[in-house]
Amino acid sequence: MNRFIEIFEKNKSNLISDNSDYLKILRLEAIENFKKTGIPTTKNEEWLHTDIQKVIKPEYAFSLEPPKIEYNIDDFFKCDVPQLDTYMFVIINGWFPQQLKLINEYENGLIVGSIAEAQKKYPEIVEKYFSKYIDNANDGLSALNTALAKDGIFIYVPENLILEKPIQLVYIVYSTEDIIVQHRNLIVAEKNSQAKIVICDHSLHFNKSFTNAASEIFVGENAKVDYYKIQNSSNNTSQNTITQVQQERSSKFLSNVVTLHGGFIRNNLNVKQNAEGCQTNLYGLYLSDKEQHIDNHTYIEHAFPNCTSNEKYKGILDDKSEGVFRGKILVQPDAQKTTAYQANNNLLLSDSASVNSEPQLEIYADDVKCSHGATIGQLDQDALFYLRSRGISNEEARMMLMHTYASEIINKINIEPLKERMNDLVSKRLRGELSRCNHCFIKCC
Amino acid sequence: MLSIKNLRVSVSNKEILKGINLEVKAGEVHAIMGPNGSGKSTLASVLAGREIFEVTSGEVKYKGKNLLKISPEERAREGMFLGFQYPVEIPGVSMLTFMRTAINEIRKYRNQEPLDSMQFMELIERKKLLVEFEKKMENRSVNEGFSGGEKKKNEIFQMAMLEPTLAILDETDSGLDIDALRVVANGINKLKTKDNATIVITHYQRLLEYIIPDYVHVLYDGKFVKSGGKELAIELEIKGYDWIKKEIE
Questions:
Q1: Is residue A88 over pLDDT 60?
Q2: What number of C-beta contacts closer than 8 Å exist between A and B?
Q3: C-alpha pair distances (Å), A11 with each of A8, A16, A28, A92
Q4: Structural domains of chain B, with CATH
Q5: Does the beta-carbon distance from A400 to B97 stay under 8 Å?
Q6: Which of A13, A86, A109, A381 is most deeply packed, by most CB within 10 A?
Q7: From CA A407, how far away is CA B189, in angstroms rounded?
Q8: How do the domains of chain A map onto residue ranges?
Q9: What is the pLDDT of residues A213-253, one digit of tens each?
Q10: Does residue A442 sit in helix, strand or coil?
């Protein structure tokens, strides 16, 4: 922890040099917050089952400069999902590629580019939303990100723009040494706009890394955002992701986090419904084996009447892997007529796999419909026997049942080619094959 | 085809089958009758390979092989079929994928080429017609949302698809109204050849009005206590199981 404070002090002038007063003060306040909160320990109730301290290693390199490695993006990343036509951007070690145009303004009004550049170019937009929703005061890793992250992605979808093409963000950890990566992202979908965002998390090489990623998503009045995150990184990677969503009146937000592979993952997804008529759908699927650790923390705050949320996370855990699910739904006194459902289901394939599931409801309104539940079990033995009794091998029958179980979440993906590809990748993953696309050079696992 | 010698089976240390002997030859229909709890379904499950049962002694040979040593799927590939008393609902696994996987795994085992989609769909339609199974199968999960009667008809449909050499039908008649019973029985009769054999397990004589057995065995308290021809079933129907119980005691 002291290391980060030292880095901040040493690079203070660099960190706050070309920034506006707003950003300057943000960083200065954030580092003060970080000094107070620090990196959470397992004594913190929210971190009981996930020891993040052990994956943030002092020997990992940490740089405030863009990567100096020579690379040509096309050489190592070609997305080959058929018919998946997207606005695609590759982010290396948290940096928007410096050799490319840092800001892309499209004819329809869409803006995508480097957040650092956007802070200079569009201060009036960025400062309206940047760091307004994330909890720098209480969450040390949020504060650390605000204090020290230098780049990331900025997406701006102006009023009334309905994007047909999804925006695809490919985050790659690419390093020949063990490193710490931070990036900071801001997605703004203004009133009446619609956007689908696809995040692909990958790693290249087998070096160790820790990524601390923070994203804020603003979903304006009557806007609709679908946010798909595919995590597919090597066992040597660790990451903490913070996604803070702010929803305005009658907006719709859908998140689907599919964790195919990864060494150590903690996803924090927080949604605040800030007006009436919001709809929130959160889905998640995690497949783990070996000694992987996958933790999903979600938090939905219902603060206004007539809003709904629907949440389902499912896991399949094998070997000695560990899963954690903690989902909290808070219904504030004013949030009458709230409908909120939450479920977490887990399949344990081995005796040494484990999962800690903690659904939580906190309700202060009286006219609400809420339910939550968690299950931890094995494959249905009656179904397995039924399939085998028709000549289907034990292995194939298990595969069919597991795939069926997983596809409930995959089928919530509203981009057809991506859904098909994910169904493929899940099958491959369950069969123990490398779950990477056919022509991709990226070594995910 | 099937030879069972002194088969003893326990579950959780409780003996259910207490020395079963049975010989079934190609072309024969055997009916196994008995009151509830006599061990009928246990016998069917053990023959199909359900692993929760412990065989404590005895032997079962099927086509000359030690049946108890082979997996449930291999039994199926060798031509055994169990019609379930309670067919399992498997939400999310489509009927078509299920049947196609089963057929092609069996064909692979027999060194046959897999069926392509056209051949497969043609086979589906032909077999549906044969066993009068009208249910649409596209976009349906295995047994999900099927009525009791449809589930039983689906078992006979699967039997028609897989063309077993030995079919064991566990209480296929239970819960069926008279029309469904007739359809199910017709299906079983149509699938009968001189090369295959059928074991019909039932509580009531009713089904045996449609399927004429060559042999009837009465199972009571884990043992066959009486065997005979088809007239034994009628006698049972008239006198009830109490008759058997009294005779034994």
A1: yes
A2: 74
A3: 5, 9, 12, 22
A4: 2-248 (3.40.50.300)
A5: yes
A6: A86
A7: 40
A8: 2-379
A9: 999 999 999 999 999 999 998 899 999 999 999 999 999 99
A10: coil
